Amino acid sequence: MAKQKYKVGDKVYSYQNPTKKFGISMFREGKDGFPNKYKLGLRDKDGYSKSSNWIDEKSLYKTIKKTDMKKKVKKPTVAYIKSSTMKDSPYFFESKTLKFFGQRQSSFKVHVTDSGRIFIYAPAYSSDYRTGKRMRMKDTVREYIPNGVRSKLKMVSLDVSKIKSM
Q: Which uninterrupted H or E stretch holds 142?
């Protein structure tokens, strides 16, 4: 039976909440050499309350870790983004859609911000139906929200210059 390091109500960081402290809502004593476990009262992005998974005592900490200050996100390729967003956005990278906007899959660039947000962007073109000339339009910009096979491409109203300065 290990001594309890944290009490119910203590505010702590964990791998599920690396940037904001949340209170411990439940405690389960470890038996037979197993560590104590805790549950945290978290909030989702919409502000709704939810409970965390059971977390080992060694995964909780009172002060923020230096490694969690800046999220390290691996930069995905455009091909990976295309395959992971097929369920949510099946027509985004389709050849007819790309041709309509004068794009290719290779014209898309991926940018990861310091905060860990991932954006893809590419220049878009339009053809004047009278003259047949190709004219530059506003860039296609989407935020990539990774979630395995259910990843999403979210429309954003940001310019490429603003994204690069983030």
A: strand 140-145
Q: Dihedral, CA atoms, 77, 123, 125, 101, nearest 10 degrees?
A: 20
Global pTM value: 0.53
List residues bridging with 119 in a β-sheet.
Answer: 111, 143
Q: Judging by beta carbons within 10 Å of its beta carbon (0-12, 13-18, 19+), is residue 114 exposed, middle or buried? A: exposed
Which of 106-115, 121-130, 156-165 has the lowest average pLDDT?
A: 156-165
Half-sphere exposure of 5 toward its Cβ, with a 13 Å CA cutoff? Answer: 16
Give residue-wise pLDDT tens across range 62-91.
887 655 444 566 788 888 888 888 888 888
C-alpha span between 135 and 132 (Å, rounded): 9
Query: Are residues 37 and 30 in contact, defined by beta-carbon separation less than 8 angstroms?
Result: yes
pLDDT at 72: 63
Chain-centroid distance, C-alpha 41: 21
In this structure, how many other beta carbons lie within 10 angstroms of the beta carbon of residue 48?
8
